[in-house]
Write a structure and sequence with these properties.
elongated, 11% strand, alpha/beta, 3 domains
Amino acid sequence: MSGKAEKLQWHPAFCAATELELRQDLDVLELIPEYNLSKKPLQINLVIIKKMDWKRTLQNEIGHIMRGHNILEYKGPGDELTIDSFFKVIGYASLYKAQGIAVNKIPASEVTVSFFRNAYPKALFLELKKEGYILKKMYPGIYYVRGKVPFPVQVVVTSQLERKAHCSLRVLTTQVEMQDAELFLEQIHYLESKNERSNIDSVLQVSVNANKQVYSLLRRQNEMCEALRELMKDEIEKELENKLQQGRKQGLEQGLEEGLEQGEKLQLIRQVIKKLQKGNSVEETSDMLEEEPENIRKIYEIAATMAPDYDVEKIYQKL
């Protein structure tokens, strides 16, 4: 051997030694070296690390439990939160704690685990109580789990969270309530940074696609924000096209001229709005669409009172 110590492979040797130890019962045993816990790399839904001053309590109720390193597991609609998934994530948190760059670099006292689910996990809570764990409701929808757990743990039932303070989480469901959707859309007007807008778009895209009927109704009742307008663009255009066809049909039934006029005006308004959004002047739009400047000016003036959320139908009604 060379003077430099070789790196020994302890794990294969351990497996072999264990098989020797249990050789009398190998007929009823299956030994699987290097067992993979999943077909893909183990992943934690979200890790939140406090960059500095981790002893400061976060303002949001959900963050009151959080410390230096926080493991978050989210269960979407239809996903179960069982006793097994509970302990699986506790195991993930333990692995995370053990992966520090030095021994005890991440103390257990700095790790927390949070579970998020829309529906109340009745079966899980019953199992935890049966196992001797204590559940304490700290805030509406926020339950702390105490007992034989290595880290502080909370279970967040998003449907029970206080409505106004947590509308971003409450709209992540397939059964969104109208009031939650309205509050979330109202909140959009006060959040203007690029990162905030990106997060809003991500939440809104999922919520709208899962609750199209609610948002369609909301769209008809209220002025839309630009984010919602963009997400429902296809539906809006389809509805306008239906109205154009309906206008033409009405023209055939009640007088061709009247019906076509309505459809053509709706189409004109759509075209004018596109030019307005591009920054074209009244005169430029008039030339491009070959329409009288006075007609274009009226549409511009009415549209200006609705900017930036232009409503074609309302503009038509005010002409």
